[in-house]
Amino acid sequence: MPLPNILDIARSDLYTNRDELEQKYAITQVEHLIRLRDMVTWCIANPDMKDRQFVEEIKQRYGISMVTAYADLKIIKAILPNLAEATRDYHRWRYNEMILETYQMAKKRKDTKTMEKAATSYAKYNRIDVEDEQSVPYHLIVVQPFFPTTDPRVVGINPVPNIDERIRRLTKELADSHPDTLNIEYEEADLQFEQIFDESNPEADEKE
What we know:
This protein has helices at about 5-15, 20-25, 25-45, 50-60, 65-80, 90-110, 110-125, 165-175, 195, 200-205. The protein has about 210 residues and is mainly alpha-helical. The longest helix is centred in the middle third of the chain and has 21 residues, at about 90-110.
């Protein structure tokens, strides 16, 4: 029976307990998965790192070859499609961590001025002073009673007196003064598109 693909294993069991992994997969796959897990964590902590830095890091940690290192990089990029670009959620989380860390350091030094700035920045960024948005009561929204009409007064336009009669009179006058003008009904185009665009038709190429 062939072993499951390591990418499929990583997608489903990347953070599964090692004891459970050893019951489901071969020990070589478990070790590989643990290595991928470790490097995924490293990538999340270092979102701006380049491929070359990843390869050097994993080679140093696990003593693997260059080929194996790049193979692991390919797997991790498949697991984390946005590996090369840190997501906004990550930056939000990282910003809060930095502010809280700054606050704690200032607190140890009893630097109340920096503590106040950090607390203010934290509150402003997380919009603590803004009331939580209330959900819209959709069940209380009344549907507007729209009705179709030909009366232009509903949009603030005065109607033209005897508009239908004027249309008929103008139509007759224009027809009398321009007898060559005809009302032509729509007709389907009498074109054989299959032959015109048939690349196998040599006659089409000659016409071009």
